[in-house]
Model the fold of this input.
Amino acid sequence: MPSLAEADEAVESVANQLRGLPGADPLFYAASEWGDWSKIWHVLGLLQTAAQRDPEIAVRLSIALGLESAFVNGFLKSLFKRERPTFDGERPLHLRQPKTSSFPSGHASSAFMAAAVLSESQPAARPLYYAAAAIVAYSRIHVKIHHATDVAGGVVVGIALGRLVPKLWPLGKPPFFS
Done:
């Protein structure tokens, strides 16, 4: 079984082949930027709320994203003091440089949690939500702000939290009451 460093290096070698390809950098830098502060997920929640005329969708998603961020960025990252990947050179586009631990990726966690929560009331769009989540998650490797294993950890956390939200706050019911 490969070590974490070997797994990170294997994914990094694939990412190196994608960097600089026409369309790749703009797509993944934009995805990384839109993943900051969960902007993409809040926008998608508002769009879903407008389409379904149900404000609970956006409110529930925004509260869940806030709690997810506090848990991942405030608690989990404090348990792991992992250095972020080093980046030599200039980035083609500006990105915010986080100061927190690299593990787990908050972008990946929020992306996969949001995909699960948004899919709940719009199951036909599930593949699109998860494709967007995968793009945002991979973007953090592409822009060299996270290691692949940071992203994998964030995906696992996001999926777990995405399963927890409907149990704690089922659609159409007050939160934390069944």
Summary: The radius of gyration is 17 Å. The CA atoms of residues 1 and 7 lie 9 Å apart.
